[in-house]
Each structure stands twice: as C-alpha cells, then as structure tokens.
Amino acid sequence: MTQVPAASSHGLALGLADADRPRDWPPLTGAEARRVLAGFGLVPRSPPLWQSARPFSAGALFEVALLPGLRPPGSLPERVFLKRHDHRLRSASRLETEHAFMRHLMASARQDLHIPLPLTRITTPADSAQASNRFSGTTEQEGGNLYEVFPAFRGEDLYRHTLSWEPYRSPIHAASAGRMLARLHLASTGFNASDGDVLLMSGARAVQMPDLEAGLTDWLPTQPGLLESLAQLGMGAGMKDDWRRSLLPALAPAHQALRPYLGDVQPLWGHGDWHGSNLSWRPSMVPGKEEVCELFDFGLSGHTSAPFDLAVAVERSFIRWMNMGRDPVAWDQLHAFLAGYDAIRPRTLVERQLTGRFLPLVHVQFALTELAYYAALLQDLPTARRDVWSGYLLGHARWFESPVGQKLIEALSATLSGGAG
C-alpha cells in the first residue's frame, strides 16, 4: 500500500512554518524602510501597517508620502508594499526579469489582467529639489539584501491566512482563478527571458529531459549549495544513501508516463505559484462569490509551459496535503477551476495529457532547491531531511502512485474540466 505523507511531515515544506517556529528572516524595521524607500523618492508616514508572515523573504505595508522636492514619474500610491530578499535567494537581475514579465503581461493583456507593477528607483540624491530627477530600475540593494516596492493591491486579501495546499473557499472562487490563469497564459506569449539559476523556483528543466537521471545530474550543480547539501545529508554521489537510490525509483513511473509527450511541450513563462493567496478579490455581498481582482507575487515565475503551470496550480490548491483524510481531492473546485480556464483558453488534447503527466513531477525541482535552502542557507539539516526530502519530495511523489493520486492524474489527462470526482 502506498504511504500517504502525514500532515505533520509537511510542517516546513514549501515554507509552511508553524506559529512557534522563529521567522527565517527578521521583520523590516522603520529605519530600514526609511532608508530604502528614500531610494524610491518616498518616506513612510508611520510604522508598518502590517508585516507579512510569508516565508523566504520579509515584507511590510507602509503608508507613504513623496520626499520633498521630487516629482514622481507617475501617480503616487498612498500605500506601498516593501519586500526584502537575501541576495543568496534573489539577485537584482532576477528581480528585474520578474518585473519585466509583469510589465509584459500588463501590456499584452490590456484590460484583462491587473497587476500592481513595481515602483521605479530614483538615481539622483534623495534630497534634490530639481524637477528633473531621473528614475530608473526597480530594485534597491543594501548590503546583502535586495528590495522591491509595489503599490498596495486593490481588492480584499481573502486568503492572507490560507496556506498553499489548501483549497479555495468556493467553486466560484476556483472558476474565477482558472479564468485569470488562462488570461495570464495568453498574455505571456512572446516573453522569452531566461529565468536564471536561483533557488526556490517551480522549474521543469530537469524533469522534462528524456533521461531523468541525466537531466537531474546536469541540473543539480546549477543550484547554489544543492550538491553540498546533498553531501551534508549523506546523499552525495557515491555515498551510501546516494540521492539516486531513493529519488529515481520514486519518480520513474511518472516520468515514464510523461516521456512520450515531451516533444509536444511549448515553452511559456508561467506564474509558478498559482494559489488564492497570490490573488486579491473583488468584494461581494455574498461570501464565496468574490471574483479575482488583481494578481501578485511573481517570485516563482519562470520559463516552463502552460500545462506545467496549470499542474502547479492543481498541486497547490486542489489536493488537501495538510489534511488528507478520506477525500483528499477537492473535485468540485477542480472542475470549476478547469472549466473557467477552458472558457478563456481551451486546451488541446496534448495539453490535457501534459497537464496530468506533469502533475506528479511539478514539485521536484522546487523541493530540491528547498533542500539547499534549509541545509545550506539555514543549516537546518533535520528539517531538510524530514520535511523536505522525506515528507515533501518523496512523500508527494509516492502519493501520486496511490489509487486516488492515479485517479487524479488520469482525470486531468483525459478530460480536465469534466470526468472524475
């Protein structure tokens, strides 16, 4: 019988830290915010209105005013979200690529997508009184940290306290999210930038190689600290617990099923982390009937494909990883989500097959880079081994071999917006 991972094994995978665990990154301070926001021609009016609890970075919401003597390049937001990244996780060039992708989406989609675009940084002294201040770039660097600033999004943050791996609140929410993801994929066409070699990315480079072992072997060294982390955990090449011995058998059935369709993959930039918590919602008088208003957090966006990105969305929101129980798949929401997607961007038969075949593999590269995050950056080997390697990477792969996991894969591959459930 296939072993389904317990909810406790997911405690820190995908950054799902419990309330008692100290934050990996310290919260933003008022002094820090004043220094950084000055680089964007802004000054905070008060202490943070709210501090984000999200993992892998630090963020806070501020009320702001324009620094005296400056003329902004556009309208001034009353509130901004300031986000800090460690330079080992995100580089300035990577953040600028994310920002370019967001601008491309807005330009291509016109009125169909709404994305808060990053603010531009001033390049003249912050106290200059000249009207000709020059603005350029959308990131600021201070020591080992990088910063980006966004206008506060419109709409309600209904999923602020909802973790990834938990379903939407209603099929109406799921359908609205499906329509919006389809619009994003249509607008993404023509954006061809490299997504770079950085940790914590939803990538497909290794898993969509015809030879999975060769693909992983070539990809692992490109991820900062990953080979060293595997060695620290006793899983390095040639060691007793060489990563190949447990990982390849766990992934082989899914990869074998995907292999016949690899020649049909059409590369496309995707969001990489599609979930209700990365969407804002237009208010409704009836709870559960809100519609998507804006989308944000492109930190996991990258060069994958529409079926891969759709499979990520399914893995994030329609399997109750945190509470598997007797009915782990939210079938009604899944059907609504896919029907919403199909209404905007109908998929081909090959894309349907690819979505189902990618599903048990979409977490692989992210989980492996998360291994490096905990083992190399945080020096937390127990979490890396227990929660990431065993609970997340292997646990999810094994669940997809269970009867219900196979039923989900086949339903996605065959009909997507109808069928099983």
Automatic annotation (TrEMBL):
It comes from the Bacteria. This is Uncharacterized protein.
